[in-house]
Amino acid sequence: MGILHLHPVGNALPADASSENIEALEAKLAEKVATVHDGWGQKYRDRVHEKGKLTTWERIEQLKDDASEVFEVGTLVNWGVTFRGSRRPAPGAGVVTAFVRIGNRWTVVIANDNTVASGAWWPKTPEKIERAQEMALRLRIPVVYLVDCSGLFLPEQSRSFAGATGAGHIFKKNALLANAGVPQIAAVFGDCIAGGGYMPIISDRVAMTESAYMVIAGAALIRGAKSQKLTSLSIGGPEVHVHQSGCADVRVPDDKTAIDWVQDELSKLPSSGADFYRHGKSPAPPAFQPTELAQVFPVDSRQAYDVDDVIGRLVDDSLFHEVMGHVGREMVTGLARIGGLWVGVIANRQGIVDEPGHGKRAGGALYREGIAKISAFSRACNSDGIPLLWLQDISGFDIGVQAERQGLLGYGSNLIYTNSTNTTPMFTVLLRKASGAGYYAMAGLPYDPVVQLSTPLTRQSVMEGRTLAIATYNSKLDDDFEIATDDPEERAEIERGMAETAARIDGDMDPVDAASRMDTDEVVAVTRLRPWLVALVEMAWQNTGSRRTKNPRIWSVFDLEVLCPQR
Questions:
Q1: Which of 86, 270, 363, 371 could link 349 by a cystine bridge, Cβ 3.0 to 4.6 Å?
Q2: Strand order across the beta sheet in which 250-252 lies
Q3: From CA 211, how far away is CA 190, in angstroms rounded?
């Protein structure tokens, strides 16, 4: 009891393994990210500097621990979208949301991009802020607001004001974070108008620079403001809110001092519990280089790969303890350390799988035994307080007469219930395919993983473009899915319609488009997955006392191994 026998996982790659196709995709992704980070360009950065202020990214750079990496989420929100009333796009929806290490503890930083319409809220901006707040709430890690917000972008107010994810929901999230005891610290650097004024108020600590103001309505909307020589600064600047209203705590002269103050406030909080939960084990790199993941994945989703080679390039020392490996062979379940911390791993096996008692099966799908296995493992990890990592590459559920007779609907419902009620942090990586109900069942975004990452290879869909085209034109096809007409004009019209349908669906499946719609949290190069997972797993173990965390001697995972011995 209490001993996990870890075994090497993964294999060395052949000398001729190529990564050229994936490198090209990742280069295009990097170009898009750089475009977002450029905001509205040098002209607008110069304007910020002329006001004696730092740009948003300069603030984050000074705020973070030296040499630590910033893990941004929602980078590509609104990518490729145009807006009425603006000749320019809204890169990143005009707000930066990121995991930032400050004082050796992870935080969620939410910072208006002051080079994009003075930090205005565009369509999707509130939703992006709320998603970041939810991540902090689920992980119980501090939130830092860097506020420099000119309010809603009014020409598109109907798309960001009302509704369940409208701007007002940000303030409810503020309240829920406060209710859960999650620390919130706000530094106000400039404009903080209307809804932007409400965002920092519920924070535990609020600082304002000399150029900052918080107002429900600025001078431009107050009747007689000109004759009274009122300015927004005189209405709601630090003189008012620090010394009179009490809506802010501290008055600081400039951006740098405000950043120093944030760092000092965070230093007063409890330190990270991650080292305690490592149980004396130091982080260790995988035995195989994580950068080799670009050579593991075939770009063509119809080609298989060995998922052990993926796991072996993500986990410490490339060591893994598989649980219930003898059953539901299309699924992999087991335990490993990432960054020295325990994590449960659930992954799809690819290619042809030999299932005892059933014969050959196609991997990348869910069958009865595999569903039952991952449901039981998911519940055990939740009971033990072990974070869960889902590595998705799935085409969907098994279908057909036998599948229905075996009650796959019921087993699927069992898994959905499990993942819907888990409280342990779950992280989902969409490696390639994320198709149909299988995407839901394996903790896709609708089932509330803390973070869902995609890769440049990811394709989210109910079905692929070609398959959907066949379904759409099914009445025009024969039993072999060939066009059933001898009329050349009709044939040409059906071929054109099927090609257009397939192309449109394949375009919708692009991971950048998915990120733009917020159907995934971030698109990450496969070569960057290991650093991301090290950070996320450490965040899951940082807070103490807010969720169930059993020590490894009393895990219920051991009970599974006794009840389901390897055959």
A1: 363
A2: 71-73, 95-102, 105-112, 143-149, 184-192, 205-209, 250-252
A3: 6
Q: State the DSSP code for 447.
A: G
Note whether 351 and 252 are same-domain residues: no
**Strand 388-394 and strand 341-348: pairing?**
parallel
What gap in Å lies between CA 339 and CA 332, rounded to an integer?
21
Those residues whose C-beta lies under 8 Å from the C-beta of residue 376, and which sit 6 or more positions away, are: 324, 560
- Amino acid making up residue 211: S
Q: Are strands 71-73 and 95-102 parallel, antiparallel or unpaired?
A: antiparallel
Question: Which residues constitute the domain of residue 471?
Answer: 465-508
Domain shared by 209 and 291, yes or no: no
115, containing H or E segment: none
> 84, 155 in Cβ contact below 8 A?
yes
With helix as H, strand as E and coil as C, how does 141-176 read? CCEEEEEEECCECHHHHHHCCCCCCCCHHHHHHHHH
Cα distance between residue 124 and residue 167, in whole Å: 9
* DSSP tag of 547: S
Quick one: which of 390, 510, 479 has its CA closest to 442? Answer: 390
Q: Has residue 114 been placed in a domain?
A: yes
The domain spanning residue 153 has which CATH number?
Answer: 3.90.226.10
User: Checking DSSP bridges between strand 205-209 and strand 250-252, what pairing results, if any?
Assistant: parallel
E strands in 273-404? 319-322, 331-338, 341-348, 352-355, 359-362, 365-366, 388-394, 396-397
In a domain, 6, yes or no: no
Contacts of 43 (CB under 8 A, 6+ apart): none
pLDDT, one tens digit per residue, over 257-295 is 999 999 999 999 999 999 999 999 999 999 999 999 999
Distances (CA, A) of 474 to 88, 89, 336, 495: 43, 40, 46, 12
Alpha helices, H only, 73-167: 125-139
Whether 368 and 393 map to the same domain: the answer is yes
- Which residues, other chains included, contact 68 with Cβ-Cβ below 8 Å and sequence gap of 6+? 100, 101
- Distance from C-alpha of 431 to C-alpha of 456, rounded to nearest angstrom: 9
Cβ neighbours of 565 (radius 10 Å) = 9
394 and 524, same domain (yes or no): yes
Q: Residue 538 domain-assigned? A: yes
pLDDT single digits (tens) 448-499: 999 999 999 998 876 566 666 666 767 777 776 778 787 788 888 887 887 7
**Nearby residues of 565 by Cβ (< 8 Å), 6 or more positions away:** none
Q: What is the mean pLDDT of the chain?
A: 87
Rounded-to-10 torsion of CA 364, 26, 88, 82: -20
Count of domains forming the chain? 3
Residue whose token pair is 């080609």: 303
For residue 432 the two structure tokens come to 């390639």
Per the listing, tokens 């995991």 go with 99
The C-alpha atoms of residue 445 and residue 427 are separated, in whole angstroms, by 10
User: pLDDT tier at 217 (50, 70, 90 boundaries)?
Assistant: low
C-alpha 283/C-alpha 435 separation (Å) is: 34
